[in-house]
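As a warm-up, study this chain.
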Amino acid sequence: MKSKISRNAFLIATICAAILTGCGGGGGGSTSAEDTTVASHSLTMAEAQALAGRVARIPGIANSLTEFSRILSNYFDPFGGTSVPNSCSLGGSYTVLQSDPDKNFRLSAGDSVSLIANHCEDADPASKAKVGMDGRIDLDALDASVFKPYSSAPGWSIRARQRHSAFKIDLDIGSVQLDGSAEVEDKFDEHNYGFFDFHYITSRSSNTVKIHSGKLARKNETIQGRTQTRALYSDLVVRTTLPGSDSVSITVPASSNSSLIFGSDGTVLDGVLVLQLDNAKIIVTVVGRDRIRIDVDNNNDGVVDLTSEMSWPALYNAGIL
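Now compare it with the structure written out below.
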């Protein structure tokens, strides 16, 4: 099992590294539905960029959830049971728990797999880079169509509820912590996510970003012989903060048809993302490969009050405000 944790830790780290280099995230407590207020002042462009950057990174967060489903489903051992703590190569330990109540010897509805990391530290045998893992992920299978999900053949699917409890990845460039739950449905070329008070925290800033509710879909498309991924936002409600202790609630309504198209290398190629606040609207439009324009309507009167162009990576980095 030790080689498996080492290999999978770096699969997770690859995704988390992309989150860190692309965006800032947050630290501190979450914002509940009862105490959320909406910033009453007119947004500056810097504030609009920060809010847009935090919402724009959600497809990357969703991609990490698919990675977690893949890893935990592969941990499932039809002939195994509760494991004892395993030592990590550089310190700490991890434990894998699993349950197969129907005794059908395959991952199916009602089964569960948990990864509990206790200050586990490991290193990539090639690069020697260190990864630390702490906290817990639970995977509760709601349905699985094949014995071994995430095979190379079409036809497999898995739908599961993930529960993250202060699950933290430490890298040399910073850390990412995930809390809350999400329902994740993965098929061969399509992935659907439902969020339930799921929030992510990074060491890059002190801002909390909470996906209170809503859905996201990711679907692979082949256009002119090239594989691309479309991320479609649907009724997402995101809560975060701005300097000055203003709490902000953002909705990405399904009626806005907000979607972004990414190339296989992660660059953004096309799409529009609409962020609706009580007192403003922010529209992110892809105007070129890895380049976007932000338009801000501060009064919801249909008139653009502020506009700016920037690169897609710069939009991510703006999220650390």
